[in-house]
Structures are given as structure tokens and as C-alpha cells.
Design goal:
about 140 residues; alpha+beta; Alpha-Beta Plaits; 2 domains; 3 strands
Length: about 140
């Protein structure tokens, strides 16, 4: 079982439109094989913070294939303007995944993640995201 998870900080006041644009790609009546459950919730403290997660019963390759077949790229294109930090978070997630796979050495992970974090910190649009980052945990300090 795979859990796909994304936490997004939306532009203020855009949740309903984001939800509509995001969900129009989901097939609730006839979900693709392997899809078990999907949830979208908002933070009680910050209604512009949205957590989306889904459970998939299959392999990573099967999930990727299903994403291609269900126009995941189109979904990302439709919601990209709502998400200020999604690309950075996904990049950090990929780096950590590659580290856990053994494909990225720990010191290289720390260097690349540190550089990415500094670039995020230099972009005022990502300030809400950067403020919430636990640097020690992210950079394995």
C-alpha cells in the first residue's frame, strides 16, 4: 500500500476554486485500479493550508503508469497557480526518497537539500513554507 501525500499552502481565499480544479480530474464513480481512498482536508489553524492524500494498492511503477493515464500532468497544470510551495516540497520529498533508496549519498543529500532550502528562503513567496521547515530534521543535522 502506498500513501501519496501533499501539503500545499494556497493563495489566500482560493480553496474552493482549487478544490474544484483539483477534483475535476478525479473519477470518484470509476476510480482507476489500485485506488483505495482519497482525502482532502484543510488545516484548522490556517484554512489556506490543504493536505491531500491518497492510498494506492500497488507498486510505485503502477502508480506512475496510472498517473500518466489519468492526466496527472493536466491536474498539476490546473492547480499550479494555487500552490506556492508545492514544487519545493515535492523536490524535498524526491530527495529524501532517493536518499532512502540508497541512490543519493547522505552528504550529497544534505548539500543539495541545503542549497534548495537557501534558494527557497531567498524567495519571499516561499516565506510561509520556509518558516515552517524544521531545518535540523530536513537536513539530517
Amino acid at each position: 500500500m502506498i500513501c501519496a501525500l501533499a501539503v500545499r499552502t494556497l493563495k489566500p481565499g482560493t480553496f474552493e476554486q482549487f478544490r474544484q480544479d483539483f477534483m475535476r480530474f478525479e473519477k470518484h464513480e470509476d476510480p482507476p485500479a489500485g485506488y483505495v481512498r482519497f482525502c482532502m482536508v484543510r488545516s484548522a489553524k490556517n484554512p489556506d493550508e490543504v493536505i491531500c492524500f491518497g492510498l494506492f494498492d500497488g507498486t510505485v511503477d503502477e502508480l506512475r503508469r496510472t498517473a500518466e493515464e489519468t492526466d496527472y500532468a493536466g491536474q498539476l497544470e490546473a492547480i499550479k497557480n494555487y500552490c506556492l510551495s508545492d514544487v519545493a516540497q515535492t523536490t524535498f520529498l524526491l530527495l529524501r526518497f532517493r536518499l532512502l533508496q540508497g541512490a543519493l549519498p547522505r552528504e550529497r543529500y544534505r548539500a543539495v537539500a541545503g542549497d534548495l532550502l537557501e534558494r527557497c528562503a531567498a524567495d519571499a513567496r516561499l516565506a510561509p513554507f520556509v518558516e515552517k521547515v524544521d531545518r535540523a530534521r530536513l537536513l539530517l543535522a
